[in-house]
Amino acid sequence: MTLTLFFILSAVMAILVFILKNRTITKNIIISYILLHIVFTAYCWINLNSTELVYFTFDSAGVLMLAVLSLLLIPTVYHGFVYTKTDKTRNFNIYHTALIALVTSMTGAYLANGMTVLWIFVEATTLSVAALVYHDRTEKALEATWKYVFICSVGIAIAYIGILLLSFIYGRGDAPILSFSSFLNLASIANPLYLKIAFVFVVVGFSTKMGLFPMHTVTTDAHSVAPPPISALISTTLMNVGFLAIFRVYTLFSSTVILPFMNNVLILSGILSLLVAAGYMLKAKHMKRMLAYSSLENMGLVAIALGIGGIGYYAAFLLIILHSLTKASLFFHMGQFFRVLHTFRLDDCGKYMKLHPAGGLIMLTGLFGILAIPPSGLFISELMIFKGLVFNNQWFLLIVTALLLCCIIYALSTRVMHIVFSDPRDIELQEPGIIKPAETISQFVLLGLVFFMCFYQPPFLVEMINRSIVALP
Amino acid sequence: MVNYLIVLFAVTLIYISVAERFRIYAGLMGLQGFLLFGITLLELQEVNTTNLVIIASETVFFKGLVVPFLLFRIIKKTGVYKVHKLAMPGFYLLILTIIALILSLVLSKALVNPYINTEYMTIALFCLFTGMLLIVTHKYILSQVIGFLVIENAVFILSLAVGNKNPMLINIGILLDIFVGVLILGMFALRLKPHTLELTRLKD
Predict the structure, then answer these.
(1) Judged by CB atoms within 8 Å, which residues 128-167 of A form the interface with B?
(2) Is A74 exposed, middle or buried (CB count within 10 Å of its CB: 0-12, 13-18, 19+)?
(3) In terms of domains, do A235 and A347 share one?
(4) Of A32 and A160, the one with more pLDDT
């Protein structure tokens, strides 16, 4: 009932925002939507493991990701208001309609208890993201949107083939929704080759959303063109949708003989993601693309964490949550960054600390946060991954991962230090725009949370993560 | 009868891989739409009438008529007719397509399952591989859209195999047509010519 109400209210709000031509009313509706989402998340948390509308279950993993989405929705909307301040009312309304559609689709994807429903909501996210990436109506925005839709379409089609292969394991008679719970009993008696192929299709297909190798290219272009608050969502909560889809299939198959195969696939995909990220970051010339490749790196680490198992499962969840907070704060900041420096080209950036001290501080703390340098909470998760590698005696993998991370640390830190402290290489800086100090609060709060979690992880968070991974071996 | 249609479908896939004109692509996509319409009617015997009408009409209308019509319009509007295979000549692509067919046969033999006919599995895998080959080996964006359309047909064939007991899976698969629509309309909106090599404004 509550879920129905949530979907109906979301649809009504999206329609109202689209129809009404009044910015104040739109703002009020969007703020109401935030409240609705927070209340709904609280409801899901209280009613953990209950099922509604047959196709949705409030399980720990889904609710955890939903909570992250609720938390990030507040600054996303705030920075969206700032970003769209000078837009025409029509564009302002389309932006917010698509935002409501995206957040509602992600909510549905998190809570879906079957493969087909999950797939439908993932498809819906693609369409709403396309509308948001195209927001600026520039030629680059068109190109990025077309590429995004094309690669996502191919990925989603491939994922659907994986889902159809799963339906053959179910059998013709009882495959209506491919629910995760009913599949648990069937996976152990299924043909392992089917499971392997289905898993590969699902990983390749949903890697368009998770931003993982081999379909990682889809998000990079979208990141560099999308409005910064949307880049923050694409790079965090939308990647979490892809992660959750892969994690759910991984959990289903984890009790079967194909577990080592799945681990190898994830580790291979993770290492290749790190390799691609390191390679591109060393030659990156665009700040937002740099952050996009950093997301690829972190998703690679998440895949490796899942692949090594044991302590890695916990590390994967912790990493994905903390990455969401850190990367979102950096992307939120990109709006102010552009207004101060008027460019994202790294060679044209410089003296940021002098021009915008609060922003310079965010860039520095964000750098520490995203590179997992203590006291960043990500340090704990990456330490766990390395502990897992040592525990499994995967020394070669450990060395390769460490080397690639060194390249990434070098690439990101030299570029950020250049932006913050050095003069621009090619041009004279333009007159910086004026930034209200209040605009940086959300980034400081999010980064503060990330650093806080290096010292203390709240018991409710630990419990939710442990519940999410309880079915894994 | 279904088997004849399936074999004919496989022939269209081989033809697509060696075709050198966009008009042939558009025609073959229309033909595939009609073949899928025939397979739908013959295969989905146990589905209720309403569902069958929805699925069959969508297949013939969208896959058989609308998509080829839009493709022909793009070709006519832009005046670009010849497919230029930058990455690979047709002969090598044909060899790869044959290898894909053999691989599909071997794989579907290994994936024998009481719930799906081997023919369906073979042709769906072959269709998937052909679509991927088209995307990877062609650089013109229209060829890549054709590659996606072929992959979409693979999804449709695979979903037909479970369609009798579970038509919902076909209906859900049909949602992929939304993307086809967006992509093709995107080509109109972008005023992209079919022979656009690549979209290169966005770089590192």
Answers:
(1) 130, 139-140, 142-147, 149-150, 152-154, 156-158, 160-161, 164-165, 167
(2) middle
(3) no
(4) A32
